[in-house]
Sequence to fold (369 residues):
Amino acid sequence: MADKIATFDDWKDLFYKWQKDIGFDTSLIKDYKFDAIYDEGTSPEIEFGEFKGRNKFEKVLDIPTQDMRDSLLHLIYYQGDTEFGSTEQQRKLLDTAPSEYDRQCLLRVMREEQRHGWQMCHVLISHFGDSGKLEARKLLERRAYEGTRLLGAFNKEMENWIDFFTYTCFIDRDGKFQLTMLHHSSFAPLSRSMGPMLKEEAFHLFTGQSGLSRILKGGKVPVEILQKYLNKWLSTGYDLFGKDHSSAAARFYRWGFKGRYDETTAVAPPADLERMNEEARSLYYNEDCQIIATLNQLIPEGQPKLRAPDPKFNRQIGEYVGKTYSVDGQPLSNKEYQDHLKTVLPGPEDRTALESVFKDKNWMTAGNA
Ligand SMILES: [Fe+2]
Ligand SMILES: [Fe+2]
Fold:
């Protein structure tokens, strides 16, 4: 794709080409029209950081320094990259939906993730000049299935519907955290983008959690196998919060671009600006544990319960990269760890077992009952 983008309409043409290229059949979403949607945002004034109390930045040129503008650009295209990445990951699942209800849920999720990507590109192209246009184009050039999306979670394979439900329950939950943190942004167009995106995100989380509940109610998927999918996706979800010590996160906060997940209820300023990622990750971990506790109520007595993998397990970002901790957070030798990975992440024999489960039409309970 060497096409140059002069206007948002030019970008739209590239977007339609991207849909075709990834094999997304647009006739399935009928006459749905993609659109950028803005609401009134959270507040006309900057809510935290060094510029607190000033009017929010309406235009990029209102932002005092080039350093700040570059950081903001980076924040927006990273968010956009996840949106397009997830549709690419989900693209093959339409043919294997457990029911028409689930197929419609997947289509809605895919359509809304594409709209989120569209929204981020609208902000980039409307406000960031040539560099925004370039990044908006690059967002349509990377591919999850070629491993070129910017964050590891969005290059992982989604092979089946257990992947899908675990992903929408826990990776879209990371999405909810990121969007909530950007909702209070000092850059007004970004803040005004987040309300409508968060509303759509709620449906993705519902799809994931209710899907996992229906799998447990169906009682056909061994809990031990489901646990492996939790191990796969949650460890990836922990990575999405970034490095434990992050000067970038500190800058984002000081400049008012990205707040805390609990920005509206937090009573004191952050204790350590460089540990903001770690704080957000621990709130995410706690929420994951609550969801898992709810799911566990559906597992009959005497069967193993689900649990969140330890935050030290299988990490690709932060201080535990390359460390050999078990799903329970126990240090292992290299050899022990390699053997451990084979037993706690989904492997070929799990896939074979699941293939026969999926042949049973009632492997999960009905979704629209
Ligand atoms: Fe999204
Ligand atoms: Fe989502």
